[in-house]
Amino acid sequence: MKKLSIALLSLLLIACSNGVQNSQENLAADSTDVKVATVIYPNEYILNELLDNNVLGLAGDKHLHEYSPSAKELSSLYEQDLIVIQSRNLENFVWELKDQLNEKGVEILELEPNGNYHTWLDPIRTIENAEIITNKIIEVKPDLKNDLSKNLETLKGKLENINFDYVSALENCESSSVLVSHNFLEPLANSYGFEVDSLVNEDHFVGFSAQKFVESMKSKHEFILSEPQYKEDIQEVLGDHDKHKGHEGHHDGHEEHHDEHEEHHDEEEGHEGHHDGHE
């Protein structure tokens, strides 16, 4: 039986595994005059599609919550014309340098000043962000308008195809909700009309109830979509609960911008199955 979480897992793996390679060859030769940096991979991907891989990506394939910029990387920011960040709440180390960077003539483009910043999971919102980035680069370097506009249309075509896959898969789901460790799927849920149940409040396990968690699992969900930093919290809660009462099953799924997918199965007394999916 197809579940919403399985559809999302499959689609997001496809959406996030394209890599940074692209085939644009029409960008003007003077594009090297534009120095653009970013931090997280989704925006690095957009920029590489627009600027033919002529982009400084700081975090690369590192998980942002585990990434700490080196002194050399921080210094390189002052050499840029433009720095694209998702949110001051995500790439806060860039935002803290905003005034100093501006004094050196470096502009900062913040894509999501308010609300949930996980918009890169939504292809339509990603198209909107790509348009914002394109317009900003044209503002910095007007001579690139024609080439950037062509590359933007190519990128939009790829993202529209992903949107079609999302819509097609979600139409066949028998479940209309998904359980997540924290609410990173909110932008996607708002666009595609499904519900998200989150286990945490503002990215912290505050007042977390093992009983409520297990009841939620049994009554409504078979899978959890989770980021790595919450895995131990979830396992600890389940372990504490299992000391008093067994539970039937727990499935962990994780959607991130990586190319790997691992599964792990543990069997315990009173516990039929536990699956961890990590992309």
Radius of gyration: 21 Å
Instruction: Give me the secondary-structure category.
Output: alpha/beta
Assembly of the depicted chains: single chain
Write the H/E string, N to C: HEHEHEHHEHHEHEHEHEE
Q: Can you count the helices?
A: 10
Helix content: 40-55%
Which regions are unreliable across 5 or more consecutive residues at pLDDT < 50? 5-32, 203-207, 241-279
> Could you report the average pLDDT, rounded to the nearest whole number?
75
Query: What composes the largest sheet?
Result: 5 strands, parallel
Portion of residues in beta strands equals 5-15%
Widest beta sheet: strand line-up = 6-5-7-8-9
What is the 3D shape? globular
Q: How many strands in all?
A: 9
Q: Report the end-to-end length measured between terminal Cα atoms.
A: 22 Å
Describe it:
Residues 5-32, 203-207 and 241-279 have low confidence and may be disordered. Helix 1 (4-16) packs antiparallel against helix 7, helix 2 (41-51) crosses helix 6 and helix 6 (123-140) packs antiparallel against helix 7 (145-171). By secondary structure, the protein is of the alpha/beta class. It has helices spanning 4-16, 41-51, 71-77, 92-95, 98-103, 123-140, 145-171, 186-192, 210-220, 231-242; strands at residues 36-38, 56-57, 82-85, 107-110, 177-180, 195-198, 224-225, 249-254, 273-278. Strands 6-5-7-8-9 form a five-stranded parallel beta sheet. It has a four-stranded parallel beta sheet with strand order 2-1-3-4. The protein is built from ten helices and nine strands.
